[in-house]
Amino acid sequence: MFRTIFLFVVLGLGLFVGSQYSGQQGYVLISFADKTIEMSVTTLVIFIIAALAALFFLEFILKRAASMSYNTWNWFSVRKLRRSRRYTNEGIIKLLEGDFKHAEKKVMRWANHHDKPLLCYLIAAEAAFSQGDENKRQQYLEKASEQDDSTLAVGLTKAKQDIRAKNCELAFDTLTTLSGQFPNNTLILDLLKGVYIELKLWQPLIDIIPKLARDKVLTKQEADSYLIRAHSGLLEDVAQQQGSEGLVAHWDRLTKKLKSDPTLITAFAKQLIARKADYEALGVIKSVLKKNHIEELYALLPEMNLSDRHPVSQFLLSAVKKDPNNAAAHSALGQLYIRDQNWTEAQKHLEQALEKRSNVSDYAYLADALEHQNLNQAARDVSRKALTLVK
């Protein structure tokens, strides 16, 4: 457009000048080597305008030809892109349908022409993994990692597949590297949560739970449950590595809220018993049961290896006197009387426990007490009741 206006302006100026100086055309001489060209000024102006017009026209023709070539090439490229996208979409559907072999073929057929080949390689890696072809899976993941901005997507895909294959150590390495590069990615932390549990890495699990709760990945109830599980596991690790003294020291460092949790108290007492610190465990259990009713702690009392079980029996008798409906205390008493071979008292307390709630173990203990009193028919009846609970 600009060139056309320019030509018209030049032509107009030429006409204006020509009209002003009509009859006075002037004289132009061009000489080079042994040749000379003579013409009037008017002829020179017309020649220049014609030359410019020819030049502009030639430029137009060349641009039009280039544009047609580009459009033709672009048409083929767009056609290939559309076909690649169509095959990729079909491959995703095949993957969801469980047809992994055809899913792999579909997405890889035109992957080189896709505008996001990373997607094709990741889908192919998933299809290969689902077919159990580890070599192809690694090849596709390597090709995917060569694409731009692929680190996170490739890492997460690999980690998820390793977790499903129970290769938690490999998933741990991948996710640990990713967490350093993407510290605020909650999906990485959520996957690490599962890996930490599988590998029993309790302290790292404790460290990430608050962030998962803040980011709404876990509800408060779920976060509390994971924390209790992690702290229970950590108690076991400390007990194995540092013994009962280290376990008690670790317990003392816990928060008041944690030390009041029934599950954690039970775990602490179990670890003391496992480390042969039964009297220390007894002191913990008695102090807790005086304030709270925790059935799991009552169940630990008969398991203790004590030189004198009389204090335990007296404590339990005091508990059932205070609360005759305390089934857990009656059950524990019954088990202690079985150890002392006091079958009558054992029968009495076990029957009282079963009146309050059904329990397979109590039925088995009661059947044993009845057999030792030669009450065989009653023992068989009790055993049948226990079998109905198992079913």
From TrEMBL:
All copies of domain HemY N-terminal, residue ranges: 26-132
TPR repeats (start-end): 327-360
Keyword annotations of the record: Cell inner membrane, Cell membrane, Membrane, Porphyrin biosynthesis, TPR repeat, Transmembrane, Transmembrane helix
Pfam families: HemY_N, TPR_19
GO cellular component annotations of the record: plasma membrane
Membrane topology category: Multi-pass membrane protein
Keyword Endoplasmic reticulum in annotation: no
Record has Nucleotidyltransferase as a keyword: no
Location in the cell: Cell inner membrane
Pathway listed: Porphyrin-containing compound metabolism; protoheme biosynthesis
Membrane-spanning intervals of the chain: 43-62
UniProt-listed GO biological process terms: heme metabolic process; porphyrin-containing compound biosynthetic process
Alphabetized InterPro entries for the sequence: Heme_biosyn_assoc_TPR_pro, HemY_N, TPR-like_helical_dom_sf, TPR_rpt
Function noted in UniProt: Involved in a late step of protoheme IX synthesis.
The name this protein goes by in its record: Heme biosynthesis protein HemY
Record organism: Vibrio astriarenae
